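Whiteboard transcription, Tuesday session. T.W. wrote the structure tokens on the left side:
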């Protein structure tokens, strides 16, 4: 059986040097390939669904920069908008008309987002949303879910601690016990665990933060009734419901997840897609809440490069393109094609995988039954997944280097590209089932 090898010598050289000057050699941990082993290909160029590394290897890109590149790499119209913006000014530290246009695009499309503030990352968006919820309610605690990730703000770097009521425990050195004590943790898709937390803490919960589709333990959609249950608990207790749509915003539908589901949040956080490949985050929501944000109100939040002309130009153009006829139908088609294709290929080789998917974000699980929460995901076959990852990498398919990360397809992942991925999967499963052939 051909076990293609991959020459990563230049990437190895750069990675070795970078590890001396950058923690782990990377500017974001997942990129270091710690959970899969080996050297991360250091990329030099992207075009549509493809990327190339320092050694000239070509890959079909299923990472998509973890979400932003819904139009693929190097979209011509976004590139042109950036060139135009660069020629007139990269940042002013003053208001610009473009920011008003961006706010119009977002508030017109996203249900429950009447007013919006741009920031520079998803983390800034969720940190600001947490501060706003605490300011608006006068309460201190935040409830989040195991396996959901809301950026690296202290309030969110907590795991389910010990104790019957899953009190938060620091998930990272540097997060203090007192901070973690204001973070409560429940189990995704488990309303009994949510009820236990509210029974004990209802009057001190400022907000419930939830990824309406859990995209940081693969891709796990909400069970029927789960979000309705969260909404009900918030309505009864006076807590606010925050949808963290940094990943799903404008990814799963033109107006984000709320186009697909009747439950409305009070505050929404966004990022990734709205930056069109540049650093942008946003938080928004009900007018009475957002008008508490400085300088309209007393809750302070600021940012030197928030709403800068480059990021706004790329974001506006991206959102304009996403509003065109047929874009989300195309994304649904390619997403469905890859998901069903992967399950068919696995089945042909006597393997059973489940694929969690919403539109063009998805995750294959080496498990016969679709996971519903973090403990299900941790029970999936990690070793099989890692063998699959490396087999695909050697065959020119770049998957995200963790079974907890979702694949992100773009409008450029057409049928021919999907067929190429499935061909690599077929050869990889053959190799896995008949090692050494
Ligand atoms: P950023 O600060 O990375 O822009 O966004 C944080 C964030 C907030 N909320 C959700 C639902 C997110 O998925 C993220 C960031 N997602 C990860 C991917 N799992 C970013 C990749 C990385 O950390 O390098």
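and on the right, the sequence the group agreed on:
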């Amino acid at each position: 059986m051909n076990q293609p090898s991959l020459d990563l010598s230049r990437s190895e050289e750069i990675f070795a040097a970078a590890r001396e000057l950058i923690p782990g050699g990377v500017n974001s941990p997942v990129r270091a390939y710690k959970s899969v082993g080996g050297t991360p290909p250091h990329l030099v160029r992207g075009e549509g669904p493809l990327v190339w590394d320092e050694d000239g290897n070509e890959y079909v890109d299923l990472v998509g920069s973890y979400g932003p590149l819904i139009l693929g790499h190097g979209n011509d119209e976004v590139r042109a908008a950036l060139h135009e913006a660069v020629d007139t000014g990269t940042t002013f530290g003053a208001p610009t008309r473009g920011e008003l246009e961006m706010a119009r695009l977002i508030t017109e499309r996203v249900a429950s987002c009447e007013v919006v503030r741009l920031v520079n990352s998803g983390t800034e968006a969720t940190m600001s949303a947490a501060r706003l919820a605490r300011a608006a309610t006068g309460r201190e605690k935040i409830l989040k879910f195991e396996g959901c990730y809301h950026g690296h703000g202290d309030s969110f770097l907590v795991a389910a601690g010990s104790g019957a009521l899953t009190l938060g425990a620091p998930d990272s050195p540097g997060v203090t016990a007192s901070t973690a004590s204001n973070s409560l943790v429940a189990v995704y898709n488990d309303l009994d665990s949510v009820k236990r937390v509210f029974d004990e803490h209802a009057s001190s919960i400022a907000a419930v933060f939830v990824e309406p589709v859990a995209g940081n333990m693969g891709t796990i959609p909400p069970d029927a009734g789960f979000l309705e249950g969260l909404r009900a608990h918030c309505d009864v207790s006076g807590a606010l419901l925050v949808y963290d749509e940094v990943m799903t915003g404008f990814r799963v539908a033109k107006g984000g997840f709320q186009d697909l589901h009747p439950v409305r949040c009070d505050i929404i956080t966004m990022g990734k897609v709205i930056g069109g490949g540049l650093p942008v985050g946003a938080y928004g929501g009900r007018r009475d809440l957002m008008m508490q944000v400085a300088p309209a109100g007393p809750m302070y939040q600021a940012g030197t490069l928030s709403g800068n002309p480059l990021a706004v130009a790329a974001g506006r153009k991206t959102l304009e393109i996403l509003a065109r006829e047929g874009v989300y139908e195309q994304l649904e088609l390619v997403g469905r094609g890859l998901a069903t294709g992967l399950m068919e290929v696995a089945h042909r080789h006597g393997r059973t995988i489940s694929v969690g998917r919403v539109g063009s974000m998805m995750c294959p699980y080496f498990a016969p039954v679709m996971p519903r929460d973090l403990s299900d995901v941790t029970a999936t076959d990690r070793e099989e997944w890692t063998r699959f990852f490396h087999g695909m990498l050697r065959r020119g398919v770049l998957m995200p280097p963790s079974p907890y990360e979702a694949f992100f397809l773009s409008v450029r992942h057409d049928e021919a590209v999907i067929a190429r991925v499935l061909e690599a999967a077929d050869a990889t499963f053959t190799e896995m089932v008949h090692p050494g052939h």
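Someone added at the bottom: DSSP finds 13 helices and 16 strands in the chain.
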